[in-house]
Amino acid sequence: MIKKVMESPLAIMVIPLSLGAAYIGVQERWPYVMIIPFINVLIVLLSIILVTIHNKRFPKDTMRLWTLIPYELREEDEGMQYYTYRATRKVYIFFALALPFSLLLYVIFGNLIKYSDVILLCLLYTAQLLIFWLEIRKAYVED
Prior knowledge:
This protein is mainly α. The chain is built from 5 helices and no strands. The chain has 2 domains: about 60 residues; about 70 residues.
């Protein structure tokens, strides 16, 4: 259960999206916006505790605390490599289309919509994770 939560796209999205919200909040002088970094620190500490608990419970199925390779890129066998290949291909195609389109949106709406750059980056990040996760999820649904 802990491993599923830690490797879900929601857990991966929380900190970058909250940092985007914190940036906008600081610029807009929202009250209590400085609580967001403290919440992020608590999330990181909770993640460390959960990974440690999982590793003690399941020593044969450990999770790394710090890794440069995201949890999504699990390539345990040839089947998983194929799903990862398909997912990364879809994300690449998405970025090949979405980046020029988002640049066009930024040129058009950059001065009209405040913080459109941060909003576009957060939307691209969220869409990338969702595209990848929906494709990888097929491997687990078929099992």
